[in-house]
Amino acid sequence: MRRFRHYIAACLGIFMLGPVCLPRPKIVPAAAQNDPGWINFTPPDEELAASVPGNPLVRNYPVSNRSNPIIKEEKTLAHRDYDGYGQGLVFVIQSYKAAHPEKLSVSQTSLDRDLVFERDLTIDGVAAKLYRKTMTNWSGTYTRRSLRFITAHHLYLITLATLGEINPAVEHFLSGLHWPREGDPVTSIPPSPESTAGYVFGRADVSRPAITVWKREPLYPEEARQKQVAGTIKLEVVFAESGFVTNITVTQALPHGLTESAIEAARHIRFFPAEKDGKPVSQRMSLEYNFNVY
Description:
single chain, TolA/TonB C-terminal domain, Protein Transport Mog1p, Chain A, 2 domains, 7-stranded antiparallel sheet, 6-stranded mixed sheet, 3 helices
């Protein structure tokens, strides 16, 4: 979402249908790393490495301070999200790079209210605090944990979500956080999966629907902003049992990059897969992105 001379907002609706980086060695694919079920994740140009339960996706954002949720005292040089799912854990790593990241301040949102302090953490000598909150939305209840810390050039915000309050994947993830070390291979990030195999269920056929945990609004492309394009984009997708959005079909489009922006936003929705008879399954969904010019 960007604010320019005109305020342009993108709204998402979901409807169900039946410290310092060291010199890096060569890049190796994430799949080639050897921890079964977990990946030693060292993204390029970051001051953070982690053990994550599956290949994450990366989303790059414009570096204008007008287009991110960080207060404007300090210029943001880069903004990325790394998000994924595995072992019953939704994880999102938000990275904000700045010359003085300690001057970046997170704006308060509704998700920041009623957080419960859980415990202090130390990540390679850097102090951090872990908070917890029980979240409820129209499709279910889950536990969300939040972690914030600052390195030499980055502010990192980490979100971890699990269906239950206790999940060993949380401790595995937290214990694997560290600064990149000499010898850590840089992790190549694969593209989003395009499709899923197996049967896809409708809403009436599942025991528990997919539970959306994380969704970002689509970015408003410059060309569309200049032309002040407004309207609705409709997508038919699958919330796959893998925890990724696949099989994206456009049923109503808009020009000037808006459809592509909506598709990118859809791919980065993180959720707990639907269940049928206690097992994760894929579920058909319909998404609408409404672009309005005020």
